[in-house]
Specification:
Blueprint (H helix, E strand, L loop, with lengths): L1 E4 L5 H6 L1 H11 L9 H14 L6 E3 L8 H10 L4 E4 L10 H20 L3 E5 L14 H7 L6 E5 H6 L4 H8 L3 E6 L21 H7 L5 E4 L8 H20 L1
Parallel strand pairs: 1-7, 2-3, 3-4, 4-5, 5-6, 6-7
Helix pairs in contact: 2-3, 5-6, 8-9, 9-10
Length: 249
């Protein structure tokens, strides 16, 4: 599993000094990053990632809400990005199965277009998608049942737990449909300022890693942080490396 970092975590530093921020992430030992708002940041990021020998195997960029999804796909392909992750979809669209089916249909259509450009489509959850329905299954499971095999999932393990579903158990259920995960920590609440470096909160990250040894990319992320987020990202990476090492021992 390659260790990446969602650049949204360091958005303020990135806006203030993109070159210094990317250089610092590379110095921490990251070999990959996950951009957000691809169309807004591509021109700045492209030369910086090349300079610091960083890959972007995945990116967050809205396709469901884009007026020109092919432009997003072309931009990603030109940067060597192989997976475009839909970062967010209407919270109200996860209560009725008919709405979930409609979302799956649109993602499937986009997957066909993406394949022409040599990239694939993914979906990233928040807590709404992982709230159990009356049959005990969550919206993400219902979505997965209806997805084209070419569509992958990026399970945000923290929001999965906040939504009321055990992320390790869900990984066992969804299997290799999930190829990427967001790894974050803290108390299991919606107060994002309370998030903590990975391994220092309520999440059982080792159980998550053990449940899905096939994962391609593990993405460290902070939605927010009450402190120096770059230091927190560095601690998260160190803790994750230690977890992976301990899992192999």
């Amino acid at each position: 599993m390659e260790i990446s970092v969602q650049l949204y975590s360091v958005r303020e530093a990135l806006a203030a000094d993109p070159a210094a921020t990317i250089a610092r992430l590379a110095a921490m030992g990251f070999t990959a990053v996950e951009p957000f708002g691809l169309m807004e940041h591509a021109e700045v990021l492209r030369p910086l990632l090349r300079e610091h020998d960083l890959r972007a195997p995945s990116t967050h960029a809205s396709l469901l809400g884009s007026e020109d999804p092919e432009a997003v796909l072309r931009t990603a392909a030109a940067m060597g990005i192989t997976t475009i992750i839909e970062p967010y979809h209407d919270r109200e669209a996860w209560q009725e199965e008919s709405d979930i089916a409609a979302t799956a249909e649109r993602l499937n259509q986009l997957a066909g277009i993406a394949a022409i450009h040599g990239v694939r489509v993914g979906y990233h959850n928040h807590d709404a998608e992982t709230r159990p329905h009356t049959d005990g299954r969550c919206g993400l499971e219902i979505l997965a049942d209806r997805l084209d095999p070419r569509v992958v999932l990026e399970l945000d393990t923290f929001w999965c737990a906040v939504g009321g579903t055990d992320p390790a158990a869900l990984l066992g259920t969804l299997g290799q449909r999930v190829q990427l995960v967001h790894l974050k920590d803290g108390p299991l609440t919606t107060t994002t300022k309370d998030q903590l470096p990975l391994g220092e909160g309520a999440m059982d990250a080792p159980a998550i890693l053990s449940a899905a040894p096939w994962l391609e990319v593990g993405v460290i992320e902070f939605d927010d942080y009450d402190g120096d987020v770059l230091q927190a990202v560095e601690r998260s990476r160190k803790n994750l490396v230690d977890m992976i090492r301990d899992g192999r021992d």
